[in-house]
UniProtKB/TrEMBL annotation:
GO terms for molecular function: 2 iron, 2 sulfur cluster binding; electron transfer activity; metal ion binding. This is 2Fe-2S ferredoxin-type domain-containing protein. Belongs to the adrenodoxin/putidaredoxin family. The lineage of its organism: Bacteria, Pseudomonadati, Bacteroidota, Cytophagia, Cytophagales. GO terms for biological process: P450-containing electron transport chain. InterPro entries: 2Fe-2S_ferredoxin-like_sf (IPR036010), 2Fe-2S_ferredoxin-type (IPR001041), Adrenodoxin-like (IPR001055), Beta-grasp_dom_sf (IPR012675). Its cofactor is [2Fe-2S] cluster.
Length: 107
């Protein structure tokens, strides 16, 4: 099964079901994750910084390309509400700027 590993969330491994967004898989696994616009691609709070395996992710969506062009999404970042993982393994980190105050993150 496709797997997302969140390095600074104790290297948690999350299985991403077929067709599910990363955000949906993260939430289904019971993790609290920022998503200010409710997963509509209208904020950047749900983003992850991809450390390994970006080639396994679905292509960037129109909102992601818009945010990249506006300088609000780095080239190595993806919006979890827009991104799917059809196959393979991806390692990512939640940026410090969007970390939730009540969640314990590792370095
Ligand atoms: S939750 Fe707002 S862009 Fe993903």
């Amino acid at each position: 099964m496709p797997t997302l590993i969140i390095e600074n969330l104790a290297s948690t491994a999350i299985t991403v079901p077929a067709g599910a967004t990363l955000l949906a898989a993260i939430q289904a696994a019971g993790h609290d994750w920022p998503h200010a616009c409710g997963g509509r691609g209208r904020c950047v709070t749900c983003r992850v910084r991809v450390c390994a395996g970006p080639e396994h992710l679905s292509p960037p969506t129109a909102p992601e390309l818009r945010y990249r062009a506006a300088g609000r999404l780095r080239p190595d970042e993806r919006l979890t509400c827009q991104t799917r993982l059809p196959t393979g393994q991806v390692t990512a980190r939640i940026p410090r700027a969007t970390q939730l105050p009540h969640v314990a993150y590792s370095e």
